[in-house]
Amino acid sequence: MFIAQELRKNNIAEYLLYMWQVEDTIRAFDCSLSRIRREYIDRFDYTEEQKDDEADWFGNLIKMMNEEGCRAQGHLQINKVTLQLLSELHAQLLASPKFPFYNTAYYKVLPFIVELRNHGANKEEGEIETCLNLLYGVMMLRLQKKEVSTSTSHAVKEVSTFIGMLSDYYKKDKEEGLKFE
């Protein structure tokens, strides 16, 4: 909860990746709040009040996962909405002549997006989701200490830069409002 709050303020893409990891963490503990509290939350250097707050947050997420049918797989509606907001901003930035650097970054990563879709990625998902799935997948590989190929590392570097730019525009839009015309 504490990490999520900070990420949501500062980097929406990192927030979304973190929330996907939280969903997977909940699944790893079989959606059991008592296990999450005992085996996960209690390991952090939090006060008892902070641990209780964190447990409440996880409890609410577990409830939502059960209600939304994403106990085994998929994403919470709150995360889908965040992804949709990012995708909508992406479309606005591409359509506006005021953001040429964003357009350049997009066309630099477009071949990677096309390649990912051609190699089994869900063709129904949007471009931003494809990029985030790449970043999440590589993050999981690295956590498992598995090898990441040089070409994948290159793609991740380019996609990270692009998604970072989108996140910066998202933050700027929330704080000041972007002018697309």
**Residue runs with pLDDT of under 50 for 5 or more positions:** none
Task: Using the CA coordinates, give the radius of gyration.
Answer: 18 Å
Derived from helix and strand composition plus strand pairing, the structural class reads mainly alpha
Q: How many independent structural domains?
A: 2
Amino- and carboxy-terminal Cα gap: 37 Å
Overall number of strands? 0
H-E order: HHHHHHHH
How would a textbook summarize the main sheet? none
Q: Given the C-alpha coordinates, what overall shape results?
A: globular
Number of helices: 8
Strand content: under 5%
The helix content is over 70%
Look at the structure and give the mean pLDDT: 93
Provide key terms for this protein.
74% helix; globular; 181 residues; mainly alpha; 8 helices; 0% strand; 2 domains
